[in-house]
Amino acid sequence: MTPGEPLDEFAVVIPVNNEDQHLPACLAAVDTALRQLRHPLPRLRVVVVLDACTDGSAAIATRWPGVETLEVEFRNVGAAREHGVRHVIDGSLAPASRLWLANTDADSTVPGEWISHHVEAARAGAVVMLGAIRPDPRDLSPSKYRDWQRRHAAAPATARVHGANLGVRADAYLEAGGFPAYPEHEDVALVESLRRLGAVIQSNAECWVQTSARIAGRTPGGYAAHVRAFY
C-alpha cells in the first residue's frame, strides 16, 4: 500500500477466554470508536473469538449487534487470534493489501480515536502499527498508579509489543505466517517476523488502549506479569 491508497476494509479481532466482567465495556468502546471514525470505510467488521469460555462471555458477544462470533476450544491465545484473523481474511471482499487487521483484548477498552489512528497509519503507508498500553487506574491504588506514571514518563510508550493494541496489513500478515499458536507472546513473535521481512512499522504513543491491571492474568507472562514485576 502506498501513501494515500484507499483502505477498503477494517476488522477488529478480539480473543476471549472467560471475560464476562470486562467484555461489555470492551465491545462498547469498540462501538464508540467505530462511530467516531473520521474516514468512512466501505466495510467494518468486529470478530470475537470465544476460546473455551465457560462463563457468560458467549451470551454477551452473540447478542451484541454487529459482532461476528466464533467458538473454539484452543485454550491458546495465539491460536485464537490466528483463527479470528483467518476468518476475516477468508471472508474479506478486499485485496489483502487493502485490509487492515486491528487487534485488541477483551479486558481492554479502546478510546474513541483508536480506529481512526489505525486507519490513518494504514493510509500513510504503514504495514504495522504498534500502540501503547495504559493500566486501568481502578485496578491500582492511587500511589501505585502515580508510580506507574513516573516510571513510564521517560520510557518509550511503544517500547513493548501489545496484542491489545496492534494493527497489521493483511498481505504482510500472511507473508509473515500469522500469529503462531503460542500460549503467550504470539504478538511479539508476529512482529519479529514482520521486522525480518522489512515491514514498515509505525509506533504511535498517542494511540493507546486501557487494559486491566490485574496481577493474575489469562497467561503466565502477559501484561499481568508486567504489572507484577513493577508492583
Going by helix content, strand content and strand pairing, the class is alpha/beta
Calculate the mean pLDDT score and round it: 88
Helix content: 25-40%
Termini distance? 42 Å
The count of helical stretches stands at 8
- Give the tally of structural domains: 1
Largest sheet: 8 strands, mixed
- Which fold name is given in CATH as the topology? Spore Coat Polysaccharide Biosynthesis Protein SpsA, Chain A
Low-confidence segments: 224-230
**Level-1 CATH class name:** Alpha Beta
Give the name of the CATH architecture.
Alpha-Beta Complex
Quick recap of the structure?
The chain has 231 residues and is of the alpha/beta class.
Task: Give a quick set of tags describing it.
alpha/beta; eight-stranded mixed beta sheet; 8 helices; Spore Coat Polysaccharide Biosynthesis Protein SpsA, Chain A; 231 residues
Question: How would you explain this protein's 3D organization?
Answer:
Mean pLDDT is 88; it is low at 224-230. Helix content is 35%, strand content 23%. Strands 3-2-1-4-7-6-8-5 form an eight-stranded mixed sheet, sandwiched between helices. The protein is globular and about 45 Å long. The protein has one domain (9-139, 158-213): Spore Coat Polysaccharide Biosynthesis Protein SpsA, Chain A, CATH 3.90.550. It is α/β, with parallel strands linked by helices and 231 residues long. The longest helix is centred in the middle third of the chain and has 14 residues, at 77-90.
